[in-house]
Known about the structure:
Blueprint: E1 22-30, E2 35-43, E3 46-52, E4 61-62, E5 67-70, E6 72-77, H1 79-84, H2 94-107, E7 110-119, E8 122-124, E9 127-129, H3 133-145, E10 152-160, H4 166-171, E11 179-185, H5 197-208, H6 212-244, E12 247-251, H7 256-264, E13 267-271, H8 276-285, E14 288-292, H9 293-298, H10 308-313, E15 319-321, H11 328-340, H12 343-348, H13 352-357, E16 374-380, E17 383-391, E18 394-395
Parallel strand pairs: 1-4, 1-5, 6-7, 7-10, 10-11, 11-12, 12-13, 13-14, 14-15
Antiparallel strand pairs: 1-2, 2-3, 5-16, 8-9, 16-17, 17-18
Helix pairs in contact: 7-8
The structure holds fe (ii) ion (FE2).
Fe (ii) ion (FE2) binds at residues 187, 193, 251-252.
Amino acid sequence: MNSPFVSTHLTEAYDGSMSEVLHLANARLVLSDRVVTGRLLIVDGQIAEIAEGESIPGGAVNCNGDYVLPGLVELHTDNLERHMEPRPEVDWPHLPALLAHDAELASTGITTVFDALRVGSIHSAKVGYGAYARKLADELLATRAAGYFKISHFLHLRAEICSETLLAEMAAFGPADRIGIVSLMDHTPGQRQFRDLTALKTYVAKKRGMDDADFAAHVANLKALQKRFGAKHEAGAVTEAKRYGAVIASHDDTTAEQVATSKANGAEFAEFPTTPEAAEACQTHGIAVMMGAPNLIRGGSHSGNVAASELALAGLLDIVSSDYVPAALLLSAFRLAEMWDDLPRAVACVTQNPARAAGLCDRGCLATGQRGDVIRVAMGDKTPLLRGVWSLGKRVA
Length: 397
Ligand SMILES: [Fe+2]
């Protein structure tokens, strides 16, 4: 869990134009190790004071006992894609898509996001994944530089190692690109996420309108790509991640052997290990385990892999990611809190643990000197009701 990674390009200076004083009082503050009734003061974008007690000083907001949590930190979301292509083959203009994505995340309590962009393109029967990451990264970084975003954005490059163009695409990125995470992905059929070919067939063949012959050709092509590029591209992607100053994540590890390889690659956290065996091996190696919030909420994985709740009950879950449902992140924290009877531990899975795994030390907990990213949450019928979201002390939802 302890990331040695601290990079200056991952810190953000407070922008004076955002100057606001925020004073939240009579709140149940979810600290790292306990919940206390008290007040929290944010000045110039930073948490300046935390005090216990029920007093409500002049000018402070009376939270009426609502919870105040650190803003949520999301390490792996495909949500931007949904805004870029709201229906299959429908391209939406990019700036409005970026802004709608940013606003949606803010509205669900996420104040830091690592936007996942795929690098490495594949062309197969009826499947064509072209290169798009560099262009979209430029647009995203320009939108951020213009000050248009409500929340804090970083990039997460999803490196498809079994693809022809991976290293050429990665060569176009550098240390100035705010790449916080590089995840090493191998989606070759018959292993990891797609051990069960039936599940893959349902997922891909339906989506792409393939018949049996198309699907067989697609699988054969992917297996050939793995043979040709797998080992070389895995090593190349690790080198590139180090050049960017990014943290490395593994993806869909299934066996203890794969986890050992991830450790050797320097992985800080594991995205969606697919078996208890892999999650246990992660714990042994000090690799934080991330699971998807939709898996936790729905009670299982849509591709037939281990249930997040099973890992949670076994003490093998450190980080939750909203994956493809942003609003699932906050919900999953309260679901875990119920399961564990421990709200601070559950909240850490969506705040402090992901922040530290990605090398961010300036956010993720309620403590003086931390970024003023906080959310206010009431409870209704065991469901969290978001009452307010602040990024650098500025209200964004
Ligand atoms: Fe995957």
